[in-house]
Every structure is written in C-alpha cells, then in structure tokens.
Design brief:
alpha+beta; 100 residues; two-stranded antiparallel sheet; 15% strand; single chain
Length: 100
C-alpha cells in the first residue's frame, strides 16, 4: 500500500515534541532577558555614580538633582520614562536606579 502524507498519530507526536521544546526554551530565554536587564541596570548605576564623583571633584559638592549633571555638560542620559531614581544629595552612595 502506497501512503501519501502523514498519519494523525505522526502529526500529534510532532506537535507534542514541538510543545515540549517550546516549554523548555521560553522560560530560559525569559530568565536570560531578565538577567541582562539586571546587568544593564547595575552598569548604568555604576556609570551614574562615577559621573557624580567627577561632578564632586570639579564642583566641590554633589549635585542637588540628577538633572544638574546634564546642565553641566556631562554626557549622561537621565531617562525618567524608563527608570525610577532615588537620590539624596547628602548620601551619594544611596543612589538607586530601578526600572519602572
């Protein structure tokens, strides 16, 4: 008997195998993406603190507001749409940046 095409059981097996592959790959991809966001945030916070120390070295005080950095010509991006900043000018090491 000459068969053309696939039987229903073969198609079901292929669909189940694809489902298993997707179920294992998607969570690890999401975890990787979250890890990259955390790394980016840590690097951004470190750069911001370094810029604040440079400001202190030149001005003799820490900026009152993070926007003071932009006003003095520092090439730093203060993105209030993407990040939430917690900053107290008396405690520069307490600077925290997090995603909104």
């Amino acid at each position: 008997m000459n068969q053309r095409g696939y039987s229903l059981i073969e198609l079901i097996i292929v669909i189940v195998l694809i489902g298993i592959l997707v179920a294992t790959v998607v969570p690890s991809a999401m975890k990787y993406k979250e890890h990259q966001k955390e790394k980016e945030l840590a690097i951004y916070t470190k750069v911001l603190k370094k810029t604040m120390r440079q400001y202190y070295a030149l001005e003799g005080k820490y900026p009152n507001d993070l926007n003071d950095l932009k006003g003095k010509g520092y090439k730093i991006i203060i993105d209030t749409n993407q990040y939430k900043y917690n900053y107290d000018s008396t405690k520069v090491n307490d600077l925290t940046v997090e995603y909104k």
